[in-house]
Amino acid sequence: MPELPEVETVARDLRAAVSGRRIEHVSVDRPDIVRFPDGRILPELLTGQRFENVDRRGKYLLLELDSGDELMVHLGMTGHLLVCDADAPVAKHTHIRASLDDGNELRFDDARRFGRVAYGSREALTAARVLPKLGVEPLSDAFSQEQLDAVLRKTTRTVKAALLDQKGVAGLGNIYIDEACFLAGVRPTRRCHRLTRRERAALLDAIPRVLTAAVANRGSSVDDYRDVWNARGSNQERLQVYGRGGLPCFVCGTTLRRTTTAGRTTVYCPHCQR
DNA sequence: CCCCTATCCTGAGGGC
DNA sequence: TGCCCTCAGGATAGGG
Questions:
Q1: How confident is the model at residue A154 (pLDDT cuts 50, 70, 90)?
Q2: How far apart are alpha carbons A273 and A73 in whole angstroms?
Q3: 8 A C-beta contact, residue A9 and residue A233
Q4: What is the largest CA-CA distance in chain A?
Q5: pTM here?
Q6: Å between A266 CA and B5 C1'?
Q7: What confidence tens digit (pLDDT) does each residue in A219-254 have?
Q8: Which of A114, A131, A219, A237 is an S-S bond match for A77, by CB 3.0 to 4.6 Å?
Q9: For strand C, is any atom closer than 7 Å to the CB of A220?
Q10: Which nucleotide comes closest to A243 if you measure CA to C1'?
């Protein structure tokens, strides 16, 4: 499932692939994928426009257009933004296609349709509540101990629940929360307000470390994540705990424990994480 | 405020 | 070979 590293990989690749390209023709097979405005008018809104920069906020992609409006894309669980030859065969779950002036096509594909697309100014996207208020970017300079403490200090909820909440820290999901907690030596099931200063400091250190490594590996293709070129990332080979419940810890050999916390499968090492 | 559950959705994998 | 069941989960809404 695409989290910050996967979305960042897509954003970087898109920046190189579509910046400066003009949109020639747009087709929308599934207008319900477009949450705002009515998906049926997306073609007339986009046609003729040129892509400029590509931004990422949390797990949201924001493709800037020369009108100043943006095409917002959230990949959900199984969404893909692909750049391919306009003549390439169209996959079963391709919902939106935009042909470009270089002979390529930008395609949005999503088997489970948890993904969403929206179009408008940043203000309009916010007002329409398709782009929610998001917390601090964990790979930015703003990600400080003060910021993280504000997310963790007072609440009684679990670390897992607090870090899944995109209003606190933006871009973390099930994979990288479990990975960061393992690196920090903190059980995801711990109550936030009971964490020590040392443990909060360990999380501050671990979160960007885990994310930076994953970006360097072009993301984790544990489900069916693919980059813009339909290629897999390699970070799944480096995951320490995610998807490894019942298997031995790479560090100490203890059997990794699998639980459900905040409605999500959670895996941790009962020996390394206390 | 916070938790849990249901909802959306398809494909993979297990059992028979 | 195929059918049914369960599970996976990001975001959001509604109930407790």
A1: confident
A2: 36
A3: yes
A4: 58
A5: 0.96
A6: 18
A7: 998 878 999 999 999 999 999 999 999 899 999 999
A8: A114
A9: no
A10: C8
Cβ–Cβ < 8 Å for A191, A154: no
Give domain status of residue A137, yes or no. no
Same domain, A25 and A72: yes
Task: Please report the pLDDT score of residue A210 as a whole number.
Answer: 95
Range of the domain at A181: 145-268
- Which single residue has its CA nearest the C1' atom of nucleotide B1? A155
> Does residue A59 lie within 7 Å of nucleic acid chain C, judged by its CB?
yes
Choose among A118, A108, A133, A144: nearest CA to A57: A133
Q: Are A117 and A108 spatial neighbours (Cβ–Cβ below 8 Å)?
A: yes
When pLDDT is averaged across residues A51-78 and rounded to a whole number, the result is 95
**Run of H or E residues at A210:** helix A197-216
Residue A79: which residues within 8 A CB-CB, separation 6 or more?
Answer: A2, A73, A108, A109, A110, A114, A115
A70/A154 same-domain check: no
Catalytic annotation, residues of A: 2-3, 59, 264
Distance A52 CA to C7 C1' (A): 40
Helix axes A145-152, A197-216, angle to 10 degrees: 110
Tell which residue, A114, A94, A80, has the closest CA to residue A229. A80
Single-letter amino acid, residue A36: F
Å: A51 CA to C5 C1': 46
Tell me which long-range contacts A124-127 makes (C-beta under 8 A, separation of at least 24).
A124/A36, A124/A69, A125/A36, A125/A70, A125/A72
CA distance A222 to A232: 9
Residue A213 belongs to a domain with what CATH number?
1.10.8.50
